[in-house]
Design goal:
Elements (H helix, E strand, L loop, with lengths): L1 H40 L6 H9 L3 H107 L3 H19 L3 H34 L1 H16 L16 H8 L20 H4 L15 H12 L3 H19 L10 H24 L6 H23 L5 H19 L6 H32 L5 E3 L2 H10 L5 H5 L4 E3 L4 H20 L6 H29 L5 H16 L1 H12 L13 H28 L20 H16 L5 H24 L8 H19 L16 H12 L2 H7 L12 H18 L7 H25 L1
Antiparallel strand pairs: 1-2
Helix pairs in contact: 1-3, 3-4, 4-5, 4-9, 5-9, 6-11, 6-13, 9-10, 11-12, 11-13, 12-14, 13-14, 14-17, 14-18, 17-18, 17-20, 18-21, 19-21, 21-23, 22-24, 24-25, 27-28
């Protein structure tokens, strides 16, 4: 049993191992098959790894067997395939042998044919060679013609270039150079003459550039020398346009002369691109143009601008336009500084100013023309910059040089010249407001010069006047003076000839000079673009200066100069009164010439009334002063005996000097009949007061230490003479005894001492009804002390006479009471 079991287990083990071996051999066979297929299908260069996997395994022998079996199978397949195609191969070899014989025959025929063809082609080849040479010659001729076609234009153009250079037509020459260099020479090819031409082109350009610059320099020098002539023509044109009908004033500014035509043709070019004008620079001859009645030559027609246009075109073509523009502007700036530099003696004559203005106008006329006829050579900003520079220098120069001028006619001519200068440049679009502002400044200077001139004139009139009424004997003389001065006196007109005008010669002369001054002011205001109101205001202000400063000073000078008599002063008062009355006629005169009503709201009033009033008051004061001086001369002749004894009896007569003084006053006041009443009355009252004050000063003079009662009686007699004169009424118009009031202080003082009425004075002092109300205690005290001193020295034996002792005691008592009165008054 156990053996059976053992045998059974062995059997199962062997079966299991046999099955395992069979499975391993199957797997090996499959792997070998795969390797063989890989060897068959893989490139021989890549079978190394495959073979390595065979040698690395344990089945090498099996693989070799497998490989041999595969080889044998392939050999059998090859053998079977060869057996199948062998008969066809034999047939093919047989046919190939046949073809070789035929090929030999064909080769022989081809060789023979080729030989015959070679023999026959030799003549053809000779003809072909000849044809080839002809074609080469033909090609060379065509090439030569083509080259000549390109070279001939070069030579022709170079010849034309030489002609243009000889004719100094540089801009066309430059265009020819450009065409020659850029078009013709590249087409011509590399030839020696082309190389020579190419080498000369830069030299020719330099020559053209330098020649054009030389012509430009000549042009600049020419216009610098002739700028005054250009400006003179432009100014004349502006003056001509100012005289045109006012209906044209609203139209746009027309170009002067033929400026429009020149602008239209300045940039035009010929067919080859050159400017039309090829003339030399300088001032053109316009005589033929002046013969044309239809057109007036303009300032620009005096100048040939072709050098500028030519040089501009040339430098533009050369690519140096910026260089040319900078050079032109720099040179013109230098010329502007030269033109704007005035001569040191320019202020001496009007011609100096005219030439200065003409040069400036000529300069800017040229610049304006260049601005409008070229594109970018100068621009508006550049011209405005130059004009701003010019304006500042012109204004500074005019301020400096006009300050030296003291001739109003020259200033007026200069003003007209400046206005024409400003209008001329304004017509070219330049702003000129600063020039008119400067003219307003010059107006002040002109006014000062006029004031100085009229100051001399007024003084001459006053010095030459005889200060006497004007006698007229005929109607013609009367009308002559009334035409010069607006005299309106119906009573005087009714008087028969001969008769006298109330004023002296200086009244109509001064009035006429005032009108002349107004005309002079009006002349300056012309063409200043001022309104009528502004002109009226300017004239009135200037006239006020003439009245309040110049004429007033001249009148003061005439009044206060030495050796002026009372008659002359009286005539001055009469004259100024008439001039004062004529002021409203001056107002009307100014209104008529300015067309501004005198009652306009903002109209300036003339100060003539106050001026003549002040002069009259000064003359009145001078009359009072001179009259008092004359009175002082008489008073210096007074020779009072202050120690005179009391009069024995009868009335004392007045002093001789006083009688003469009264006679002088009577004759003097008789001349005052033509004076205004108040003036004569004031003069008379002033004279009487001065006499009274002077006599009082004689009494109180500190040098007079002693006064007797006899001296007071003599002074009392003189005062009575004065009162008699006052009572007689030397001047009409006083009411009652008004003139006697001038002597009231002296009268009451003398009455107090001559009547010795001290009791009344002391009792009634301070009362309104006091008899001696005008007697000052200080005055009476001073006079009493002088009388006391006289009594003490003259009456040596007064103590021996009772009456004298009583009088002395009375004087002492009165002095004491007066001092107490003064003390009380001061307290």
């Amino acid at each position: 049993m156990s053996e059976a079991l053992a045998l059974g287990s062995d059997r199962r083990s062997s079966e299991l191992s046999g099955a395992t071996c069979r499975m391993a051999s199957v797997e090996a066979a499959a792997e070998h098959e795969r390797i063989l297929r890989e060897i068959e299908s893989t490139d021989t260069n890549c079978i190394g790894p495959t073979l390595r996997s065979v040698y690395d395994g344990q089945e090498h022998g099996l693989f070799m067997e497998k490989l041999d079996a595969r080889i044998r199978n392939h050999d059998r397949d090859i053998e079977r395939m060869c057996n199948h195609h062998f008969q066809g191969f034999v047939d093919s070899i047989t046919e190939l042998l046949k073809v070789r014989g035929e090929a030999q025959k064909l080769k022989s025929q081809v060789t023979e044919t080729n030989q015959r063809l070679q023999d026959d082609g030799k003549q053809l080849m000779a003809s072909m060679e000849e044809l080839k040479q002809c074609r080469v010659q033909q090609r060379n001729i065509a090439t030569t013609i083509d080259k000549l076609t390109h070279c001939l234009p070069v030579l022709e153009m170079y010849s034309r270039l030489q002609e243009q250079m000889s004719a100094k037509r540089y801009y066309p020459a430059l265009r020819t150079l450009e065409q020659l260099e850029q078009t013709c020479l590249p087409r011509a090819g590399q030839y020696r003459f082309c190389s020579i031409m190419a080498e000369n082109i830069p030299k020719l350009r330099t020559h053209i550039r330098d020649t054009a610059m030389t012509q430009l320099r000549d042009f600049l020098e020419s216009i610098r020398k002739h700028s005054d002539k250009i400006g003179e023509t432009a100014v004349k044109q502006a003056q001509l346009h100012r005289s045109l009908d006012s209906s044209l004033s609203g139209q746009p500014r027309v170009l002067i002369g033929r400026r429009g035509k020149k602008e239209a043709t300045a940039a035009a070019t010929e067919s080859d691109g050159s400017p039309l004008s090829e003339q030399d620079s300088g001032i053109l001859d316009v005589e033929d143009e002046e013969d044309d009645d239809d057109e007036v030559p303009g300032a620009q027609e005096l100048v040939d601008f072709s050098p500028v246009y030519r040089c501009l075109h040339i430098y533009t073509v050369l690519g140096l336009r910026d260089v040319f523009e900078n050079y032109y502007r720099k040179q013109r700036r230098k010329q502007a500084r030269l033109v704007l530099q005035p001569h040191s003696n320019m202020h001496e004559t009007l011609e100096g100013y005219r030439r200065y203005f003409n040069q400036i106008v000529g300069f800017f006329v040229v610049e304006d023309h260049v601005l409008h006829t070229t594109q970018g050579l100068v621009n508006r900003a550049y011209v405005e910059e130059l004009w701003e520079l010019a304006l500042s220098k012109i204004v500074a120069a005019l301020r400096t040089h006009s300050s030296y001028c003291d001739d109003p006619n020259l200033v007026l001519d200069l003003k007209n010249l400046i206005v024409l200068f400003a209008d001329t440049l304004q017509g070219y679009g330049f702003p000129v407001s600063q020039l008119f502002d400067m003219l307003f400044e010059m107006r002040e200077q002109y006014g000062e010069i006029l004031l100085k001139r009229w100051n001399v004139t007024f003084r001459q009139v006053l010095d030459q006047d005889n200060y006497s009424p004007i006698p007229v004997s005929t109607e013609e003389e009367y009308r002559h003076y009334t035409s010069q001065f607006p005299l309106q006196d119906p009573e005087l007109e009714k008087l028969p000839f001969p008769k006298k005008l109330p004023f002296s010669e200086f009244v109509p002369k001064v009035y006429c000079q005032l009108k002349e001054f107004i005309y002079a002011c009006l002349k300056y205001s012309e063409d200043l673009h001022l309104s009528s109101t502004e002109v009226d205001d300017m004239i009135r202000k200037s006239t006020n200066l003439l009245l309040t400063r110049t004429l007033s000073n001249c009148l003061q000078y005439a009044i206060k100069k030495k050796n002026v008599g009372l008659a002359e002063l009286v005539q001055v008062i009469i004259n100024t009164t008439h001039l004062e009355q004529s002021c409203h006629f001056l107002e009307e005169f100014i209104s008529n010439i300015t067309n501004v009503p005198p009652d306009t709201v903002n109209a300036t009033k003339l100060y003539g009334t106050s001026t003549f009033k002040d002069a009259r008051h000064a003359a009145e004061a001078e009359i009072y002063t001179n009259l008092n001086a004359k009175i002082d001369q008489f008073l210096q002749l007074a020779d009072y005996d202050w120690m005179a004894a009391p009069p024995a009896g009868g009335n004392l007569s007045a002093s001789d000097y006083l009688i003469d003084l009264m006679a002088f006053l009577k004759s003097t006041f008789s001349v005052f009949t033509n004076l205004p009443g108040k003036v004569a009355q004031t003069a008379c009252m002033s004279a009487c007061k001065h006499i009274s004050t002077s006599l009082m000063e004689l009494l109180l003079n500190p040098e007079v230490r002693q006064i007797s009662i006899g001296a007071l009686h003599q002074l009392n007699a003189d005062v009575k003479e004065c009162e008699s004169f006052a009572r007689a009424g030397p001047v009409a118009g006083f009411q009652g005894d008004t003139l006697l009031l001038a002597f009231s202080d002296l009268r009451q003082l003398l009455d107090l001492f001559t009547q010795w009425d001290w009791s009344t004075y002391l009792v009634d002092y301070g009362k309104p009804t006091c008899k001696y109300l005008r007697v000052n205690p200080h005055t009476s005290l001073a006079l009493l002390e002088k009388m006391k001193e006289t009594s003490r020295k003259n009456n040596v034996f007064a103590q021996f006479r009772k009456t004298d002792r009583d009088r002395q005691k009375l004087i002492d008592t009165i002095i004491k009471q007066l001092r107490n009165l003064i003390t009380q008054q001061q307290a």
